[in-house]
Structure formats: C-alpha cells, structure tokens
Amino acid sequence: MRHIEIRRDPADVGLDATRLENLRHHLDGYVSDRRLSGWLLTLARGGDVVWVGRGGHRDREREHPVTDDTIWRLYSMTKPITAVAAMILYEEGHFDLNDPAGRWIEELREPRVYVSGPASAPVTVPAIEPVRVHHLLTHTSGLTYGFQNLTPIDELYRTKGYDLAYPETVTLEEAVHDWCSAPLLFQPGTAWNYSVATDVIGRLIEIWSGQSLDEFIRTRVLDPLGMDDTDWYCPPEKLDRLAMLYAYNAGEAARLESLADAATRWPTLLAGGGGLLSSAHDYQRFMTMLLNAGELDGTRLLSSRTVGLMTRNHLPHEGDLRTFARDSFSEVGQSGVGFGLGMSVVAHQPTNRSLTSEGTVAWGGAASTYFWVDPREELTVGFYTQLLPSWIYPVRREIQQLVYSSLVD
Fold first, then answer.
1. Which residues contact 100 (CB under 8 A, 6 or more apart)?
2. Is the pTM of this model over 0.90?
3. How far is residue 303's CA from residue 220's CA, in Å, rounded to a whole number?
4. What are the tens digits of pLDDT across the range 27-50?
5. What was the pLDDT predicted at 3?
6. Which residues contact 308 (CB under 8 A, 6 or more apart)?
7. Angle made by CA atoms 289, 292, 297, in degrees to the nearest 5
8. What is the rounded CA–CA span in Å between residue 43 and residue 400?
9. Using CA atoms, how far apart are residues 85 and 298, in angstroms rounded to an integer?
10. CA 351 to each of CA 35, 38, 187, 357, 397: distance values in angstroms, whole numbers, following the listed order
C-alpha cells in the first residue's frame, strides 16, 4: 500500500498539532452518526505534507477501512485538471481565450438564447455575443446541467438523457452536439451558471490536439506529475481500493451500489467535467503544482504567468457568484467567491465571512470531495469522501474553519 508521506512536523511550519486534532474529532463525528461512511484529509504547507487524517470505511458494509491509497470518484474535481490541460494548448498557440468556440463546434456557430416557454417549445432569440473559449472556462457561456432542475433548458437536457448521469452509449462528440444544439440559458458573458462547459472544453482539447481526451490528459498532465492512480475508471487490479458510493437518505449515508458500479467500466463519454477517479496522493501532486505556479519536481506544466491568469477572478467588475450566478448550483459558497479559469477563487474575504485568504482557489465534486490551494498561506488541503449530493452538509466550510484555526505562526 502506498502511504502518504508526512514530510515535516506541523509545528515546524506554524501549525498547532493539538488544534489539528479538532479536524479528526469533528470528521469522526460525521462517521459515528453515519452521515459519512469514511473520510481522508491531507494538509500540506509549503509543498510538504504535514498532517493526514482518516476515519471510517471506504466500504462500510464490507468493513473495509479508509486507507491512504483509497481511490475516490473526483466528479467535478476533474474540472481543474481539464482546465490545466486546455491551458497547455493555449500556451502552444492553439487558441486564444477570445476565440469563438463556433470555430470548432458547429452547433455554436449561430447559437440561440432562451427567452420563454416550455422545454417542448422554447422561444429563443439569436445570441448577440459568440460563445467564446473564455466563457466555457468560466461557466459564463449559457450552457447548463440537466440535474439542476431549475429551468426549461435544464429539462431539455434531461429529455436528451443528461441528468446526474449521462447515457452510457453516448460519446463526448455526440454529447457536445446534444448540449450545444439546445438554446443557451442566457446571452454569453452576462451571467454565471454551473454547466457542462468543461466537458465542451474536453472536446475542444481533442480537436486542438488531435488526440482523445484521455490520451492528452494522460501524456501531458497525469504522467508528468506522477499521478499513476488517476484514470477514467478503476481497473480490476485496483478494485479492492475503490471507495463505495453513498447517497443521503433520512440523515444517513446509504449505499448506492448501482451508480457506484459505473466507475468499474471504461466510459464511452470522457467527461472532462467530472469523469476522473484519483487518490489523495495523486491529487496532492496536482495541488502542489498549482501552488508552485505550474511546476512540480522539476517538471513545468504551465508558465507561472498562465497559472496567475487562471487563478484570478474573471467575473466582470470583480464580482462574486452570489451576485453574478443565475441561482445556479455551485460546489462552493457564493458570497465573496469569484471564478477563474476552471476553479473558484476567493475574491473578498470579509464578504466570504471565513478565514480563507483572498486568492485561494478551490473546487469540489458531487460526492462531497473538496480541495483548496492558498498561495498566501502556502496551504494545500484535500478532502475525500463519497456522499451524494455535496450540498447536504456544510463540511467544507467547517474544514476550512478548523484548518485555519490551527495556524499559529
């Protein structure tokens, strides 16, 4: 079993080990009352892991404990990886952020925007602004998710088979056709809405690179970072390490074996917005690369200037998701939080009402996983569990509160 190596004593980097134990006590409480089956958390400062906590089971019913090498479904924590992959191609000159996506996606050449009416007969008008690559990377394109159940356009996605899960036989190219031939929810660039936009970016990566999405991400991101346990499915030789998936049911985590089984098969649709599985060790390497402004162990994926562009707030007028989002589901709290290229960024700490530093980038996954990178404090934190949906408990905010309360330097 691959252990996560603790490389420095917490006290050496300004963390109080006694206070850190509050994390373990708090998260074990989620396990003891069955709200979570199990959990794992890694905390690093200055690139060195200084604390690892774990509790409960990766499979509660089979009494398999959480281990350092447990494999977790990342869901939307895939998005920052896909964004990094896209920006590698940006640095090679394959596109400009202002380029209309319709240059490559036929269905976006003359998009229409929803105005009124039911999903069966929507009233639309022409888009007055192209859907640009920048819009896709910032979720300001007007695309949506079927599972949000908020608008007739969400319903239209569901009628095509795109809910929390996607049709098993559909390819990424076919899915992009289905999504992008539907009306946009709003004029591009005028609002923020969580969406399949990162999946569309995945298709653009295939077009720009001439490779399948899995091949490009493997050769240009995962292999250079040594992320050997990160893949689009869990192969047979690693199945004993795969965490079970759970869903909220009357205050408890209930086993969700039918949906969990999808992770054991190679997907037809390579979902750049939510398809990867990974381990805490692997995602720690990805977070450290972001903290190091694009470099890890002598391997540089991106220029520091590109990472700087990705990790600043791109919402108009330095706005936040609370004011710019269309009542959309988000994997993070919205007050004081802006959005960069592929991940959120804390734009205003007092409005966020937390100890989290301005400039901190983060995102989470549908099964309640979460990560953040705080350049000011040189912190990287990864939290792993498998509970659907992610918004039931405020565990992410609670973890942030407990981590920053442990800083004493």
1. 108, 109, 130, 131, 132
2. yes
3. 14
4. 999 999 999 999 999 999 999 999
5. 83
6. 293
7. 65
8. 11
9. 18
10. 29, 32, 27, 12, 14
3-state secondary structure 121-161: CCEEEECCCCCEHHHHHHCCCCCCCHHHCCCHHHHHHHHCC
Q: How far is it, in rounded angstroms, from Cα 409 to Cα 379?
A: 13
Three-class SS of residue 388? strand
- What DSSP character marks residue 208? H
H/E element, 115 = strand 112-116
Concatenated DSSP letters of 311-331: TS--SGGG--HHHHB-S---S
**Distance between CA atoms of residues 47 and 260, nearest Å:** 33
* pLDDT tens profile 200-254: 999 999 999 999 999 999 999 999 999 999 999 999 999 999 999 999 999 999 9
What Rg, from alpha-carbon coordinates, does the chain have? 20
Sign of the four-CA dihedral 235, 240, 243, 244:
positive
Nearest to 31 by CA among 402, 403, 386: 386
* Nearest-angstrom CA–CA distance, 350 and 354: 7
Q: Are strands 252-255 and 246-249 parallel, antiparallel or unpaired?
A: antiparallel
* Per-residue pLDDT reduced to its tens digit, 297-329: 999 999 999 999 999 999 998 899 999 998 777
CB 337 within 8 A of CB 344: yes
Cα 74-77-359 angle, rounded to 5 deg? 150
Q: Which amino acid is at 267?
A: P
In whole angstroms, what is the distance from residue 308 CA to residue 294 CA?
9
341 CB-near residues (< 8 Å, 6+ apart): 83, 87, 134, 137, 138, 309, 310, 314
**Percent helix, strand, coil in the chain (nearest 5)?**
35, 20, 45
What letter does residue 294 receive in the DSSP assignment?
A: S
The size of the chain, in residues, is: 409
Residue bearing tokens 């007092």: 350
Query: Side chain identity at 132, as an amino acid letter?
Result: R
Residues 6+ away with beta carbon under 8 Å from 103: none
CA distance 344 to 21: 28
What is the rounded CA–CA span in Å between residue 204 and residue 158?
A: 23
CA 52 centroid distance within chain = 21
DSSP string, 243-260: PPPEEEETTEEEE-HHHH
